[in-house]
């Protein structure tokens, strides 16, 4: 093969896409304040497993609120919480239904459609989207999750420093 490639260089692909709104410091500060507010509401007296779930749900809700409902996944997270609260107020708690997990191979025989369905199940609210719309939602969701990780790392470092057990960051 010759030295010229048919693929476009990364420098030509970069400017065509707008920069993600999750990569600027202002979005991270907004999410950080929303996350702190949500974490303050997590009950400290609950069981450790329930508390962990509440922290995770609070982090996802804060991320969805920071997205301001502009994306499908953020609306799905907010709607899920709303439905859960309505269901809890209307119905007595029922035992959870069993979930079956199918074993699927990710080999060369797996079609693009089945991979897209699997990807759509991973992102909230994206089960029945066309592939281009799904990829746009996935890229936004990944950028938001990366910002969430950065914010939580910074938050844990700040808490460690404030409590006097501060250690040098490893990353």
UniProtKB/TrEMBL annotation:
It is found in: Nucleus. Residues 1-29, 89-112 are annotated as: Disordered. CDD domains: bHLH_AtIBH1_like. GO terms for biological process: regulation of DNA-templated transcription. Residues 28-83 form the IBH1-like N-terminal domain. GO terms for cellular component: nucleus. Keywords: Nucleus, Transcription, Transcription regulation. InterPro entries: bHLH_AtIBH1-like, IBH1-like, IBH1_N. The keyword Ribosomal protein does not apply. This is IBH1-like N-terminal domain-containing protein. It comes from Panicum hallii.
């Amino acid at each position: 093969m010759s030295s010229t490639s048919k693929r476009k260089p990364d420098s030509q692909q970069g400017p065509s896409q707008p920069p993600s709104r999750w990569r600027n410091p202002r979005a991270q500060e907004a999410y950080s304040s929303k996350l702190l507010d949500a974490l303050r509401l997590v009950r400290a007296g609950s069981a450790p497993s329930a508390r962990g779930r509440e922290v995770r749900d609070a982090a996802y809700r804060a991320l969805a609120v920071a997205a301001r409902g502009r994306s499908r996944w953020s609306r799905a997270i907010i709607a899920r919480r709303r439905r859960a609260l309505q269901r809890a107020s209307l119905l007595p708690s029922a035992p959870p239904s069993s979930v079956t997990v199918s074993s699927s191979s990710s080999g060369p025989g797996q079609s693009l459609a089945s991979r897209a369905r699997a990807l759509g199940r991973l992102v909230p609210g994206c089960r029945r989207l066309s592939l281009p719309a799904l990829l746009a939602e996935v890229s936004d969701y990944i950028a938001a999750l990366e910002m969430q990780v950065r914010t939580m790392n910074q938050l844990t470092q700040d808490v460690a420093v404030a409590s006097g057990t501060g250690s040098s960051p490893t990353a």
